Amino acid sequence: MNKKVMIGMSGGIDSSVTAYMLQKEGYEVEGVYLKLHNRTDGYHERNLGYIEDVAKFLNIKYHILDLADKFTAEIYDYFVEAYLEGTTPNPCVKCNKNIKFGAMLKFAQENGANYLATGHYAKTDGKFFYEADDKTKDQSYFLSQVDKSALPFMMFPLSTYKKEDIVKFGATLSSVYKKITEKSESQEICFVETVYTDVVKKHANIDVPGLVLDEEGNVVGKHKGYAHYTIGKRRGFTVNGAHDPHFVTKLNPKDNTIVVGKKAALEVNEVVGQNLNMFIDDIEFSCSVKLRYRSISTPCKVKIENQKAYITLEKPAFGVAAGQLAVFYDGQKVIGSAWIESAK
Question: For the whole model, what pTM was predicted?
Answer without folding.
Answer: 0.95
